[in-house]
């Protein structure tokens, strides 16, 4: 594996100076890529939670910035609740909560909110529970591999109003994506909204993986980073397919978002490409 001279986990070190919304993907073409040997593919997938645990051991709670931008991108997650509304209390599920960069800023400003927060990293959940603002009356954090463990073992059936899936599904092997969708469906109410944002196909990181002399490709659009964590790069067509195939969710909106980012410390200008979408539980 190559040295850590570029890592898309390190997005917090970049400042955003341009945002371009687009409903279509770019017409890039990836070079013929060398795939990682099957032994290592299986090993990376088997040790996914271990590698994320090591990530949080190295970086503790200091790596990612608080996700204050989410409310601007998804009005459903801004939680500007009208106190006069009856039954305005909301139950939110955050997939892949990490160390709480979404949880605590949101809970601090919204009294009518309860968050179920899960992550498959034991260490990440430990950090969440040790946070000075963690309160079981407002939040329940638990270890869960959403591609395998049943969410309904931790959350009442059809209880969730909103699901936050922000840079989470990409860390899961694509053969398990449909399992995650079915898992979410068991705990969401009819009309619940799924807020999705993740890496898009032809993101700068994928292009760098493809052009690297080292082997990063595990399978189509799925790569491994130098630290052993993995990342899938989505197309809107694929995302709609996995959400809509069993008629559990319907598509509301989707777009590609390009962010030109600058790392002033290294003098780098990088084009990041994300996919943002919303789905509704049927």
UniProtKB/TrEMBL annotation:
Catalytic EC class: transferase
SUPFAM superfamilies listed in its UniProt record: S-adenosyl-L-methionine-dependent methyltransferases (SSF53335)
Pfam families, per the entry: Methyltransf_12 (PF08242)
E.C. no: 2.1.1.-
InterPro entries, alphabetized: Methyltransf_12, METTL2/6/8-like, SAM-dependent_MTases_sf
Gene Ontology biological process: methylation
GO molecular function: RNA methyltransferase activity; S-adenosylmethionine-dependent methyltransferase activity
Family according to the record: Belongs to the methyltransferase superfamily. METL family.
Annotated function: S-adenosyl-L-methionine-dependent methyltransferase.
PANTHER family: METHYLTRANSFERASE-RELATED (PTHR22809), TRNA N(3)-METHYLCYTIDINE METHYLTRANSFERASE METTL6 (PTHR22809:SF5)
Name of the featured protein: tRNA N(3)-methylcytidine methyltransferase
Lineage, opening ranks: Eukaryota, Fungi, Fungi incertae sedis, Mucoromycota, Glomeromycotina
């Amino acid at each position: 594996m190559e040295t850590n001279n570029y890592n898309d986990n390190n997005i917090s070190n970049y400042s955003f100076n341009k945002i371009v919304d687009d409903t279509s993907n770019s017409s890039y073409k990836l070079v013929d890529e060398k795939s990682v040997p099957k032994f290592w593919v299986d090993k990376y997938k088997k040790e996914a939670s271990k590698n994320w645990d090591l990530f949080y051991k190295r970086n503790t709670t200091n790596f990612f910035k608080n996700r204050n931008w989410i409310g601007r991108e998804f009005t459903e997650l801004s939680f500007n609740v009208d106190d006069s509304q009856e039954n305005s209390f909301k139950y939110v599920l955050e997939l892949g909560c990490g160390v709480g960069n979404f949880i605590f800023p949101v809970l601090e400003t919204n009294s009518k909110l309860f968050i179920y927060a899960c992550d498959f990293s034991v260490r990440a959940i430990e950090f969440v529970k040790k946070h000075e603002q963690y309160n079981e009356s407002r939040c329940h954090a638990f270890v869960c591999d959403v591609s395998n463990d049943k969410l309904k073992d931790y959350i009442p059936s059809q209880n969730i109003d909103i699901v936050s899936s922000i840079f989470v599904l990409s860390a899961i092997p694509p053969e398990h994506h449909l399992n995650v969708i079915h898992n979410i469906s068991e705990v969401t109410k009819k009309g619940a909204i799924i807020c999705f944002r993740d890496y898009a196909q032809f993101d700068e990181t994928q292009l760098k993986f493809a052009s690297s002399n080292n082997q990063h490709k595990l399978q189509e659009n799925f790569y491994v980073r130098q630290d052993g964590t993995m990342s899938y790069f989505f197309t809107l067509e694929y995302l709609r397919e996995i959400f809509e195939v069993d008629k559990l969710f319907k598509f509301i909106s989707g777009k590609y978002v390009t962010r030109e980012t600058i790392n002033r410390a290294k003098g780098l200008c990088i084009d990041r490409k994300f996919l943002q979408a919303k789905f509704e539980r049927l």
